[in-house]
Amino acid sequence: MRKFRNMLTAVLTFGIVALMFGSCAKEESSQGFVIKRGTNLSHWLSQNDMRGEMRAKHIQEADMVRLDSLGFDFVRIPIDEEQMWDDQGNKLPEAWDLLLNGVKNANKHNLRVIVDLHIIRSHYFNAVNEGGEDKNTLFTSEESQQQLINMWYELSDTLKGFSTDSVAYEFMNEPVAPEHDQWNQLIAKVHKALREREPNRTLIIGSNLWQGVQTFKYLKVPEGDKNIILSFHLYEPMVLTHNGAPWTPVGKYTGKLNYPGVMISKEDYDKAPEDIKKDIERYTKEWNRDSLRSLMNDAIEVAKKYDLQLFCGEWGVYEPVDRELAYKWTRDMISVFNENHVAWCTWCYDADFGFWDQLKHDFKDKPLVDILMGKEQKPDEKK
In 3D, which of 307, 319, 326, 340 has the Cα closest to residue 372? Predict the structure, then answer.
């Protein structure tokens, strides 16, 4: 009897252990680098001339504490080649220390991190508007492509100690290749190189031409790799989100804007300067939540095809834009994201599209954060 009881106990124990291991295995496979609500820590290690103490103080641990408390679960950290490496390809220790500490502080406060190689010397996404297209050699130079891979080898050497569910790599921001297949070929090349070193690291891959939704149908995703997140950027309607922005033609429009509805009336379109009419013509039609949903459809379908997570890595409204229009657009974007389980990352935290003022140590747009987090008061709740 005792022997039978012992055997029964052993069987039950084995079964419980097996169930526990089975449960753990199932939980492990469903974890990974899962994201939902993020923001870009822009103009810190990218697109700025700050160095020394000013750069060091720009993003600190207190910022990670704040973002966690607000309800964000990840940050995207854009970095530029010229910030991380000198002209001879030597690492610049100060910037690397800032990146490493930034990742550590983010993880410490429950924030996952996407490290985004934003601008490199052989490729700048806005060269078409700012000149210097001749410097974009990435898609025509084997040497430039190998340099991109070498940079990621060095980044991997520094970041590989972080768990795969806490840090992901976006190996290039907003590619602008003359031909879609040039970008697809580079994806395959960089993917192969990184997979040889880090087979389980989540990689973020977007489509050609500024990670636009309109080119997602041309994107070739490495087959059989589930540790990939697909990314698109969406600022449409640009005439609203970039109204007044000096770096883009649509920013020059000074007439009336409507949203939702016909964005620019025929009367206002006719009054617009001739040199921007071709850029704003597409905004003379109806724009609303359905328009945004339709824009995202190709990206959503590609993500379904590959059974991969999808996220919008950049979206937001330029600070001077009328806030009521900005809020209406933001609500619609959040609605479509939620409908289609699309994670998102605002552009940005504290710069000219942001909600936080680093100098005043206060919100510059708290209502925007409330909308993002679904905490906006309804009209009948307001005092």
Answer: 326
Q: Provide the percentage of residues in the chain whose pLDDT is more than 90.
A: 87
Query: Does the residue 7 lie in any domain?
Result: no
Which neighbouring-strand residues pair with 343? 311
Domain presence at residue 18: no
Phi, psi of 205, deg, nearest 5: -130, 130
| Structural domain span for residue 233 | 34-245+287-373
Number of domains observed in the structure of the chain: 1
More reliable by pLDDT, 126 or 132: 126
User: Is the sign of the CA dihedral 155, 156, 157, 159 positive or negative?
Assistant: positive
CB-based contact 309:34 (threshold 8 Å): yes
CA distance 328 to 213: 21
Confidence check: pLDDT of 300 > 70: yes
- Asked if the structure places residue 114 within a domain, the reply is yes
CB 282 within 8 A of CB 295: no
Contact status, residue 323 vs residue 330, Cβ threshold 8 Å: no
CATH, residue 129: 3.20.20.80
Q: What is the pLDDT of residues 308-342, one digit of tens each?
A: 999 999 999 999 999 999 999 999 999 999 999 99
The reported pTM is 0.89
Contact yes or no for 147/138 (Cβ under 8 A)? no
The whole-number pLDDT of residue 6 equals: 39
DSSP H or E stretch at residue 358? none
Is residue 237 a contact partner of residue 263, using CB atoms and an 8 Å limit?
A: yes
Residue 299 lies in a domain: yes
CA distance 38 to 89: 31
Pairwise CA distance, residues 20 & 28, whole Å: 12
Alpha helices in 272-373 (DSSP H): 274-280, 289-306, 323-339, 366-372
Q: Which two tokens stand for residue 99?
A: 């990146």
Would you say 208 and 176 are in contact if contact means Cβ atoms under 8 Å apart?
yes
